[in-house]
Amino acid sequence: MSTFTRSSTGGTILYALTHNDGIKQKPRKAFVTTAAVSHAVFDAAYQSRYTPSQIKRIWRLAGDNLTELDLRKLFSTLVTNTDVDHLLSQGYKITGGRILMNSGRRCVAIRVLSEALHQALKAQRLSNPADSSAPRRVQWSTFTYEVLSLLCLRGMADETLAEACLELDIGL
């Protein structure tokens, strides 16, 4: 199997050419853009009963108060054992619809998440691109919840966000 990437202004495209039993398959490509990641994160959080203002506050607080290293550790831990191809097939679209803060480009946390997804996808495609047994434990809404949990743990979330986190923790 061979893999190559191409960067553009909107994100990174990862191509994977696979060879199974001497048969060359069509290349699979995945566009990992901050705008599309932002859209998927926003929609999943909205469907998980966060309000649009809460979602924007959570991600803005993360970008303003957490270091890139903290965010990389958090997101890398989440995506390491996740089938990123499967995640990208669940609610991830290249679209101009409802998105987070400036298409996510200025949102440091969304950019770091996009980079973590790209690195994990690249690593998975290099190791075993056809492995369908990889765990699929992370959903798009998981990222917002984990960022909010970290903000609450460090005392950076306001009362409203802390209440939202507690409601999710106890299943309300």
Explain this structure.
53% of the residues lie in helices and 13% in strands. Residues 1-10 and 12-27 have low confidence and may be disordered. It has a 3-stranded antiparallel β-sheet with strand order 1-2-5. It has one domain (32-170). The protein has helices at 34-47, 52-65, 68-80, 84-88, 108-127, 140-153, 159-170; strands at 2-8, 11-17, 19-20, 23-24, 28-32. The longest helix has 20 residues, at 108-127. The radius of gyration is 17 Å and the shape is globular. The protein is an alpha+beta fold and 172 residues long.
- Intertermini distance: 47 Å
Q: Assign a percent range to the helix content.
A: 40-55%
* Oligomer designation: single chain
Mean pLDDT: 75
For the record, the count of structural domains works out to 1
> How much strand?
5-15%
Task: Give structural attributes.
single chain; 172 residues; alpha+beta; 13% strand
What's the helix and strand layout?
Elements: E1 2-8, E2 11-17, E3 19-20, E4 23-24, E5 28-32, H1 34-47, H2 52-65, H3 68-80, H4 84-88, H5 108-127, H6 140-153, H7 159-170
Helix pairs in contact: 1-6, 2-6, 3-5, 6-7
